[in-house]
Design a protein that fits this description.
globular; single chain; 2 domains
């Protein structure tokens, strides 16, 4: 198996070690492979969406004063039916969006959110 090098911050390493320990994995490489499989499955589920979709989009981020998500929300207002914003601890924000519309619009919105690299958590739950 090829060996690669990646850069992680201290929090990433702490989370990786915790994941490895909690799941009883023998090393960090196994933990990273598990995370990749999980991310691949999540991405496949999103990309397999077709036609009209309805559900809840949950986003956690720590950029309260940054308008990046506001801009994405305004660009996608045709599929957003309800938007709730709440302040969490440690200066983080929770966005809950009820969406209904064409799956391609939702996929584009998810790509925009993930592409910015600012969101700590993004989950779409199909209705």
């Amino acid at each position: 198996m090829p060996v690669i090098s990646i850069s992680l911050n201290d929090k990433n390493i702490e989370d990786l070690d915790s994941l490895q320990e909690q799941l009883g994995l023998s090393n960090r490489s196994e933990a990273i492979r598990l995370c990749l499989r999980s991310a691949e499955a999540d991405l496949k589920e999103k990309m397999d969406l077709s036609g009209e979709v309805e559900g809840v989009l949950i986003v956690v981020h720590d950029k309260h004063n940054d308008l990046w998500l506001n801009n994405i929300i305004h660009r996608n207002e045709r599929i957003i039916k309800t938007h709730m914003h709440s302040h969490l601890k440690d200066h983080k924000c929770l966005e809950v969006l009820i969406v209904r519309g064409d799956s391609e619009d939702l996929k584009g919105m998810l790509v925009d959110i993930h592409g910015k690299g600012v969101a700590e958590y993004v989950k779409f739950v199909r209705g």
